[in-house]
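[Meeting: bench + compute handoff]

Bench side (C.D.) handed over the final construct sequence. Compute side (W.E.) agreed to return the predicted structure before the next meeting so the bench team could plan truncations. Sequence as handed over:
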Amino acid sequence: MAFCRNCGNEIDDQAVVCVKCGAAVEGKTVPVQPQTIGGDADVQQNKGIAWLSYVGILLIIPLFVKKTSEYCKFHVKQGAILFCTELAYTIATRIILAIIRGIYIATPSYALYSVMAVIYSVLNTVVGLGSLLLAVLAIIGIVNAAKGEKKELPIIGKITILNDLMDKIYASINK
């Protein structure tokens, strides 16, 4: 048995800190836990549902079911940003593609018709790649939430335009 250099309490040989005063035992390192939002218990209890925040409208499940969880709140906010980005992207690209397709179909000249066909095909490919990028962002969010990590989504994660609205929603459902 050893004794604490700080308080003199008897310390078990396996201990890394004194149970009485919390001082580190000389020659032993204290393991450092990674910092998580809402505490380890919050993360462990809610990471099984927080990932739903990145599956479109299913973000309402952790929003209402785990409304007091800070961990779920972070991921619901990130999921809401992703959902709104996907929605805006889908609406904008469909309108643009419909206009281009309308011009393409209504073109009387064969030369212009060929050019419009190429433009439509290229735009359609770009839109598909954008959709793929949004799907990858959703997968990244799901993996982060399931692993118990608080990481913002790449590219869109720092957008804070929805944070005030989401805070108001949380405040109203937590009354």
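W.E. noted at the follow-up: Residues 47 and 147 are 7 Å apart (CA to CA). C.D. will use this when planning the next construct.
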